[in-house]
Design a protein that fits this description.
434 Repressor (Amino-terminal Domain); Rossmann fold; alpha/beta; 3 domains; six-stranded parallel β-sheet
Length: about 350
């Protein structure tokens, strides 16, 4: 049933329709629609009642153009298949919502400068105020991301160029803690199952693992490389020595550690009696592994908050310097690690 006084014929309800229904001017309806403090009491309630009665929806795009901002953040990402990216996107969306902003997600299938610039152009058409770029992998056609001028941008998980606003998790400290934990248990050295070579996070973790062994004066085993998946961890595990020359492994993420568990059982090696394993990310199921996995925890919620805070600071003050926050990582010790032969 059409509400009393509503326009007939299914046409969109206008501000003038609401004004006529409420017995006020269109200017009064506009003020109520924009939450102006100049209209209060019974008049405001009458206008709100008419809006509900008629099904009036304010033209948010027109209001945004008038204000000069859209209360929307764009997010560009190269993949939504990795745990870290999914958690980061989720954290950004929640932090943006807490700040009163919506998010528009735009995946880029091919990590090239050209594809990223096309994504920026598309986000500009979709009317966003600023952009957060999750740079999980290196660009195929450029050493550094070249950002379009005049757009507030924060880059996550990348080697930032000069003048770039950036946020990172502390990959280096996390990998160092994982390696030093295993050495501290008495293992002679630590093997490493790394992530993809084009991943910034994988490279940082591998470099920190190597530096930790060098600082301790230990032999550095050859890196065994995976691609973040449990299957690649399983295949990497079958490449490791199945004897006492390999008693400790640091995996670059928890999924590959899960595959490594399977490989160790297949070759008859017990965890942690014969081999200790440390992962990275502290995924939701890592404490349900058999045995529960020792891992490095990343605070993705804080990462999302820092991304949103950095980009909003640019909107408030375009010339403000980036704080370049680094989000903490910490070791979570469980039952997958022990002294050699324990």
């Amino acid at each position: 049933m059409t509400p009393l006084g509503a326009p007939q014929g299914g046409k969109r309800v206008s501000m003038a329709d609401v004004a006529a229904h409420a017995g006020v001017s269109s200017q009064t309806v506009s003020r109520v629609s924009n939450d102006s403090s100049s209209v209060r009491g019974p008049t405001r309630e009458r206008v709100l009642h008419s809006m509900r009665e008629l099904g009036y929806r304010p033209n948010s795009a027109a209001r945004a153009l008038k204000r000069g901002h859209f209360r929307t953040l764009g997010v560009i990402t190269f993949t939504m298949t990795t745990y870290g990216n999914v958690r980061t996107i989720d954290a950004i969306a929640h932090a943006a919502a807490d700040a009163g902003y919506a998010t528009t997600l735009l995946p880029v299938n091919i990590p090239t400068q050209r594809s990223v610039h096309r994504a920026f152009g598309r986000l500009e058409e979709l009317a966003v105020d600023a952009v957060i770029v999750i740079m999980e992998t290196s660009l195929r056609d450029s050493d550094h991301l070249i950002l379009p001028p005049g757009v507030p941008v924060v880059v996550v998980d990348a080697d930032h160029g000069a003048g770039t606003y950036g946020v990172d998790a502390d990959q280096v400290t996390g990998a160092r803690k994982a390696t030093e934990h295993l050495l501290g248990l008495g293992h002679e050295t630590v093997w490493h199952v790394s992530g993809p070579q084009d991943s910034y996070a994988a490279r940082r973790r591998e470099e920190a693992w190597r530096a930790s062994l060098e600082a301790a004066g230990r032999v550095i085993p050859p890196t065994v490389r995976g691609n973040w998946t449990a299957l690649s961890g399983y295949e990497a595990g079958l490449q490791l020595p199945a004897d006492a020359t390999c008693t400790a492994v640091f995996c670059a993420n928890d999924q590959m550690a899960l595959g490594l568990y399977r490989a160790m059982r297949q070759v008859g090696r017990r965890i942690p009696q014969d081999i200790s394993i440390v992962g990275f990310d502290n995924i939701g199921d890592s404490d349900a592994y058999d045995p529960p996995l020792t891992t490095i925890d990343q605070d993705f919620e804080e990462l999302g908050r820092e991304c949103v805070e950095e980009v909003l600071e640019q909107l408030r003050d375009p010339v403000s310097p980036s704080r370049r926050p680094v989000v903490r990582t910490q070791l979570v010790v469980r039952e997958s690690t022990a002294a050699p032969g324990a």
